[in-house]
């Protein structure tokens, strides 16, 4: 292989898989991401693996960084062990550390929601780094990083610039100033479209709150207690849900996405201006999805597709243009896929699988099934047509329900018709229960006994 390609890895926060024009949303305006889908490949069925507390973003990011599932990726996945569930396990190869060890200059901008040790191990430098979960988008606590460590060393400085613009400007500054011969790995992590969804004008009023269409899966109330009805995210709107209020949330959500889309365009233009676009692999994804009113829910602490599926767009040298791939994938497949696309071997022993051959059209095989977990109360398994969710009442909190859902995604993509109790679908339920057991055993699911 000739000159190694650069890598620009862009990750958003809370961006649902289908809230992109190219993915089928007829309301949201995402011309830049739509262009990426035209000039590259769109993976339409990429899934998260889940988490054991409301901050699903933390383990999902650890899985992306390490190319594996949470029971391998982090120091702990014990419910309530908040100090360690976000710490990447010592000795794990992370995506930035792996590329760094293979001759790449690694630089980070924006959100790193895991521990400082794994960050320092992976990156040569970084600026405008945010280590929290969320903040006021207009007052962002950030650090810089170089060979001398973090600056400031302990407490962050507060920058009064909208987060998306702050991170974009920092990424562009790196691209314009980088002059080394080594290829770069630039990690750009936005906190948008996470709440508080306060996009600046003219984006704040871009969408008419009275005209936003309601999704077919809008419900005033979720049909049963899923075990996590009292988490912070679910208190962002009144319960039962009202269409008028949910429309407002959707308008604000779309405004944040469109604003971010514009600034991603600025980064890509900087790549072009510096002559690097043609030799840079660009990835766009998110840590997880979000309900925003679907199924009577607001947050991501559930197993419906709107919460467990994320965007995955990829463009660059060797990547087909205008290709849509619907086969099942995981977000932790991105790491080994990027390795292959960059001409590197992937670390041994990780759960992620390279999808490079699938992207290049050399195979039509993705994953046969995927599974996702949440706390000790929800487990999901699906293939390309059938999806089953198991719910349990938590032994720790007493919340939740012992029930089951089965959806025929081919005929019911909005997950509205539960077929689990119908005798004619008993074979599908039994088959998926067996597949779920296999997944829990393979991954060492700490709470498998609750579902077996």
From TrEMBL:
Cofactor(s) listed in the protein's UniProt record: Ca(2+)
Keyword vocabulary terms for this entry: Calcium, Hydrolase, Metal-binding, Signal
SUPFAM superfamilies: Alkaline phosphatase-like
The keyword RNA-binding appears for this protein: no
PROSITE patterns, per the entry: SULFATASE_2
Keyword Signal found: yes
Domain of life: Bacteria
Ranges for domain Sulfatase N-terminal: 5-343
UniProt xrefs under PANTHER family: ARYLSULFATASE FAMILY MEMBER, ARYLSULFATASE G
Family statement drawn from the similarity comment of this UniProt entry: Belongs to the sulfatase family.
Name this protein carries in UniProt: Sulfatase-like hydrolase/transferase
Organism of origin: Paenibacillus dokdonensis
Source taxonomy: Bacteria, Bacillati, Bacillota, Bacilli, Bacillales
């Amino acid at each position: 292989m000739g000159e190694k390609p650069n890598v620009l890895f862009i990750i958003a926060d809370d961006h649902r898989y289908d809230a992109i024009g190219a993915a089928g949303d007829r309301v949201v305006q995402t011309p830049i991401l739509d262009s990426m889908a035209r000039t590259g490949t769109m993976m339409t069925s990429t899934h998260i693996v889940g988490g054991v507390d409301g901050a699903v973003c933390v383990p999902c990011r650890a899985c992306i960084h390490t190319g594996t599932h949470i029971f391998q990726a982090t120091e702990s996945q014990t419910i309530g062990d908040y100090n360690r569930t976000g710490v990447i396990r010592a000795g794990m190869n992370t995506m930035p550390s792996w590329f760094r060890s293979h001759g790449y200059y690694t630089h980070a901008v924006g959100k790193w929601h895991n521990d400082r040790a794994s960050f320092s191990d992976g990156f040569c430098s970084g600026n405008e780094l945010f280590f929290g979960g969320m903040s006021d988008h207009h007052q962002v606590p950030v650090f810089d990083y170089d060979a001398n460590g973090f600056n400031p060393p302990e407490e962050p400085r507060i920058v009064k610039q909208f987060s998306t613009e702050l991170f974009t400007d920092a990424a562009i500054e790196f691209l314009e100033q980088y002059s080394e011969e080594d290829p770069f790995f630039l990690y750009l992590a936005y906190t948008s479209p996470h709440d508080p969804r306060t996009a600046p004008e003219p984006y704040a009023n871009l969408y008419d709150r009275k005209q936003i269409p309601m999704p077919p899966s809008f419900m005033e109330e979720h049909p049963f207690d899923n075990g996590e009805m009292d988490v912070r995210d679910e208190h962002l709107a009144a319960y039962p849900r009202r269409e008028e209020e949910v429309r407002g949330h959707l308008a604000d959500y779309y405004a944040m996405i469109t604003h971010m889309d514009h600034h991603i365009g600025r980064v890509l233009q900087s790549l072009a201006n510096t002559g690097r676009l043609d030799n840079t692999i660009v990835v766009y994804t998110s840590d997880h999805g979000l309900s925003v009113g679907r199924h009577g829910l607001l947050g991501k602490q559930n197993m419906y597709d709107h919460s467990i599926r994320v965007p995955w767009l990829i463009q660059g040298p060797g990547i087909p243009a205008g290709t849509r791939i619907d086969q099942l994938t995981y977000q932790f497949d991105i790491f080994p896929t990027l390795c292959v696309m960059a001409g590197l071997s992937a670390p041994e022993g990780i759960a992620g699988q390279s999808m490079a051959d699938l992207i290049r059209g050399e195979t039509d095989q993705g994953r046969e099934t995927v599974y996702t977990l949440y706390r000790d109360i929800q487990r999901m398994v699906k293939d390309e047509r059938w999806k089953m969710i198991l719910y349990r009442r938590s032994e720790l909190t007493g919340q939740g329900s012992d029930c089951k859902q089965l959806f025929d995604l081919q005929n019911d993509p909005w997950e509205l018709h539960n077929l689990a109790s119908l005798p004619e679908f008993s074979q599908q339920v039994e088959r998926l229960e067996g597949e779920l057991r296999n997944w829990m055993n393979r991954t060492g699911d700490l709470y498998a006994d609750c579902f077996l």
